[in-house]
Design a protein that fits this description.
alpha+beta; single chain; Beta-lactamase; seven-stranded antiparallel beta sheet
Length: 490
């Protein structure tokens, strides 16, 4: 048996930040714009421009970040514009990455499958996004730590208020409990009132998947197969919860010195939120459905109304910051709104990003450990370089705002909320801490400078990053948002 606890033991804050932000569109390289060799209007590029950019990017970045291989797919206006593999899916057997056949693990991008299933049952009148989820649970109930109930809408926007216990996976599939039993025994307590702040929760998505299972009367994997995968023709896709594994599955690796060490297959007890496996070409079909009012070719898995709800911001920590839609996280760069999701599971990393206004999206995946190496950086590097190249924009000017805030109120130590609040040894989570300091009327965070542009809202100097603060009823600063939630701990 090999059980792995995903604890904050990363070597530097940079590695941790990239590991955290692969789940969002905030990125970890938002520090400026690259030079655009050819001036262009935003979104004005063709398939040749795209291929030249993508080929150059992956050739450079796979080598720079020590990643064995990757697969990429790009869709626009209901068509697959580009699908290509780079490097090796299996080093030992010298098997190249193929976007059509190479199966990869997509990690938390799996949550988009959960959200789609929930929205299908909402369409059919079998689920309500805004009622107490306990209404749908028959064998266990969500805790009553707060008077307000938790809803499906809050589960899908990570605003249910659940704690984050240490995340573990195992290489022994016999250890994986049935979903109902796992949730009944392991559902974490609620630490904030529902709808108060974003606190990313895989447990919340697993609970949503279990509700789909309860209401549909079939196992969640069977529901997904019949209602999402088969209609879209995603024949290479499935949930990986036990052997046998797909014949064409890529090997996940972790760089140790100059060696790439094959990683064992992890099994996740909360499988709906993180154990989906697919190919780049299959994921292209899903992206097209999300961008074409729920339809791929002649088959629709969602109504246009449901897709619009999934694209629309449903929760945010602050009105001036990106937030969450149903299943998708938001991002903003170069005046472009993105929605998408990232994922990481042992040996693999993945990103899916859509620009709905332009009817386009991309998906790529790579077979390198993302939490214990620098490989996660490829996600934000691609996003920033893609947008800076094909959607160029000037860095926004700082608004003319006269700050009256006492910056000393904001300085101190803040901790990323996604840690186990019930753990005794909270020192283990020190890597989740960031220091906010001030100098010359500006706030400093991770070496970046910020100035106030609205009450308790700050913009990066010579950059695009935003952060905001929240105070309690007594005027005490309790949260910093960047845009994820950081609790004040000093």
């Amino acid at each position: 048996m090999d059980r792995r606890m995903i604890l904050p033991d990363l070597r530097t804050w940079q590695l941790l930040l990239c590991g955290i932000l692969i789940l969002s569109l905030a990125g970890c390289a938002l520090d400026g714009l690259v030079d655009t060799p050819i001036p262009r209007e935003p979104g004005d590029f063709d398939s040749l421009d795209l291929a030249e950019f993508v080929d150059s990017f992956f050739e450079e970045q796979l080598d720079d970040l020590d990643i064995p291989g990757a697969a990429f797919a790009f869709v626009r206006d209901g068509q697959v514009v580009m699908a290509k593999g780079y490097g090796l899916a299996n080093i030992e057997r010298e098997i190249a990455f193929d976007p059509e056949t190479t199966v990869v693990r997509v990690g938390s991008v799996s949550k988009l499958i959960v959200a789609t299933a929930v929205m299908q049952l909402v369409e059919r009148g079998q689920l309500d996004l805004h009622v107490d989820v306990n209404r749908y649970l028959t064998t266990f109930q969500i805790g009553d730590e707060y008077n307000d109930p938790v809803t499906l809408a809050q589960l899908l926007t990570h605003s249910g208020g659940f704690d984050h216990p240490p995340y573990w996976t195992t290489t022994d599939p016999s250890e994986i409990l049935p979903l109902e039993q796992y949730l009944a025994e392991q559902m974490p307590p609620r630490i904030t009132p529902p709808g108060e702040v974003l606190a990313y929760s895989s447990h919340g998505y697993d609970l949503a998947a279990y509700i789909v299972e309860e209401i549909s009367g079939v196992p969640f994997t069977e529901y997904v197969e019949n209602n999402i995968l088969q209609p879209l023709g995603m024949d290479q896709s499935s949930y990986l919860i036990s052997p046998p594994h797909p014949d064409d599955m890529a090997v996940g690796y972790a760089a140790e010195g100059r060696n790439q060490v094959p990683q064992p297959i992890d099994y996740d007890p909360g499988y709906p939120s993180g154990s989906f496996a697919s190919t780049a070409s299959d994921m292209a079909k899903l992206m097209i459905a999300f961008l074409q009012d729920g339809c791929y070719q002649d088959t629709c898995i969602l109504t246009a109304e449901s897709v619009a709800l999934m694209h629309q911001q449903q929760f945010t920590n602050h009105p001036q910051l990106p937030g969450w839609a149903y299943g998708f996280t938001e991002g903003l760069r170069n005046n472009q709104r993105m929605i998408g999701h990232g994922g990481a599971i042992r040996g693999f990393g993945t990103d899916l990003t859509l620009l709905p206004e332009y009817g386009l999206g991309y998906f790529f995946t790579f077979n390198e450990e993302c939490y214990q190496t620098v490989a996660c950086a490829i996600v934000s590097r691609f996003r920033s370089q893609f947008l800076d190249t094909f959607f160029p924009a000037d860095i926004p000017a700082l608004p003319d705002y006269e700050s009256t805030t006492d910056l000393d109120r904001l300085t101190g130590t803040y901790r990323y909320i996604r840690y186990s609040h019930s753990e005794i040894y909270t020192w283990e989570y020190a890597h989740f801490d960031v220091e906010v300091t001030q100098s010359d009327g500006q706030l400093l965070l991770r070496g970046l400078r910020f100035v106030e542009i609205a009450p308790l809202v700050f913009q990066q100097v010579d950059g695009q990053m935003l952060m905001a603060f929240r105070e309690d009823d007594l005027g005490n600063i309790i949260y910093m948002f960047n845009p994820d939630t950081f609790e004040r701990i000093d």
